[in-house]
Design goal:
single chain, about 25% strand, about 130 residues, Trna Endonuclease, Chain: A, domain 1
Length: about 130
C-alpha cells in the first residue's frame, strides 16, 4: 500500500470516528476508536509506541510515545484541544525524526469540522517515498 493510500485511509477513518463521536471527548477515546476503525479496514496499527532517544550509542527511554503507528510507516499524533499550538507540530516532527519515519498526521478531534483539525507533515522524504 502506498503512503498516500495509507494516509487517505487514516483521514477517512478519523472522519468516521469524528462524525460518530463529535468533539468534546478525551484523546484516549478517539485513539481507541480510530485504532479500532483502522484495524477493521485491515491496516496494521500499534498504539502508544515507545520512541526512544538514541544518545551516546544507547536507546534511552525518555517517555516519548507515538499515539498511533499505522502500517509501520505513518505516525499519527492525536489531540483533543481547543487550540492547536506550534509545539504539537514540533512534537510530531520529533517523533518522525526519532523513529526514522517521513510522514505523520496531526489530528485534533476537538473541532466542529475535522478537516479544520488535520495537518499532514512530511520530514526528510527520500526520492519516491511519497508515491
Amino acid at each position: 500500500m502506498q503512503i498516500n493510500e495509507i494516509t487517505g485511509q487514516i483521514v477517512d477513518a478519523a472522519m468516521k470516528v469524528h462524525t460518530a463521536l463529535g468533539p468534546g471527548l478525551l484523546e484516549s477515546a478517539y485513539e481507541a476508536c480510530l485504532a479500532h476503525e483502522l484495524r477493521k479496514r485491515g491496516l496494521s496499527v500499534r498504539t502508544q509506541v515507545a520512541c526512544p532517544v538514541h544518545y551516546d550509542g544507547q536507546n534511552i527511554d525518555a517517555g516519548f510515545r507515538m499515539d498511533l503507528l499505522v502500517e509501520d510507516r505513518v505516525v499519527v499524533e492525536l489531540k483533543a484541544v481547543d487550540k492547536m499550538h506550534p509545539i504539537f507540530e514540533a512534537q510530531l516532527i520529533t517523533y518522525l525524526k526519532l523513529s526514522n519515519r517521513s510522514v505523520g498526521l496531526l489530528i485534533n478531534f476537538n473541532v466542529q469540522r475535522l478537516k479544520d483539525g488535520l495537518k499532514r507533515l512530511v520530514s526528510g522524504v527520500q526520492e519516491g517515498e511519497e508515491d
